[in-house]
Design a protein that fits this description.
The chain is α/β, with parallel strands linked by helices. It has one domain: P-loop containing nucleotide triphosphate hydrolases (Rossmann fold, 3-Layer(aba) Sandwich), CATH 3.40.50.300. The protein is about 35% helix and about 30% strand. The protein is built from seven helices and ten strands. The strands form two sheets. A six-stranded mixed β-sheet has the order 6-7-8-3-9-10, with helices on both faces. Strands 2-1-4-5 form a four-stranded antiparallel β-sheet. Helix 3 packs parallel to helix 5 and helix 5 runs parallel beside helix 6. The longest helix is centred in the C-terminal third of the chain and has 18 residues, at about 180-200.
């Protein structure tokens, strides 16, 4: 399924999410409305505790709001079953985490192939696409290497390739430069910008890194769980 021409890829309306901390209820996201169009490159900026990760998880259908809705390519996420939400995450979304979340016993190629196995792709197709994606992120010589023998930047490159395995419409990246030195972070952001331009994949970053913000084409600022500003950069 593809987004309607000119329509939003992901759209949030009136999202709110709170968490219970002991006897207290702590609001993490407050009445957020936001839309991401196909092919955008957006930074969701804010300090720790501003609600960035919570909002990313809501938009990526990893969590459910207390109030409001998330629509993905016109489909109401709150009306879907858990299986349908899981299928949508697998087929239309990619995720990049600050801790990489690679499977340690699998090689780089096997990590990238894993989401395709879940989607039912043939072994030949998984191998072909995993190698093509690892070549695209500059890791053709690391196909058989496991994550513990890769540098932080190389692990993040594998994670990016894995996020693209099922040709998603959008990649959600949570603090993707947090565990990288500044030089490696620049390389990773250059790579993401190139993939965005060449493959048309939208990227949405949750970040407090000024480097990521400077590379974004649009910056959404969160303050205490609410949108404080939303502007092209």
């Amino acid at each position: 399924m593809t987004a309607a021409t000119g329509g939003p890829l992901v759209e949030a309306r009136g999202l709110s999410r709170s968490y219970r901390l002991g006897e207290s209820v702590v609001p993490a996201v407050r009445d957020v409305s936001l839309s991401i169009a196909p092919g955008e490159f957006v930074a969701l900026r804010g300090p720790s505790g501003s609600g960035k990760t919570t909002l990313l998880n809501l938009l990526g259908l990893l969590d459910r709001p207390d109030e409001g809705t998330v629509r993905v390519e016109g489909r109401d996420g709150e009306a879907l079953t858990e299986e349908e939400r899981s299928d949508l995450r697998r087929d239309r979304f990619g995720f990049v985490f600050q801790t990489f979340n690679l499977i340690p016993v699998l090689s780089a190629e096997e990590n990238v192939a894993y989401p395709m196995a879940l989607a039912g792709a043939s072994a030949a197709r998984r191998q072909e696409r995993a190698r093509e994606l690892l070549a695209a992120v500059g890791l053709s010589v690391k196909l058989a290497v496991r994550p513990d023998l890769l540098s932080g930047g190389q692990r993040q490159r594998v994670a990016i390739a894995r996020a693209l395995a099922n040709a998603p419409s959008i990649v959600f990246a949570d603090e993707p430069t947090a565990n990288l030195d500044s030089h490696t972070a620049e390389e990773i952001l250059d790579l993401m910008r190139r993939l965005n331009a060449e493959r048309g994949v939208a990227f949405l970053f949750a970040t407090h890194d000024a480097l990521v913000v400077s590379r974004a084409r649009r910056v959404v600022t969160l303050h205490d769980g609410a949108i404080a500003s939303d502007a092209a950069s």
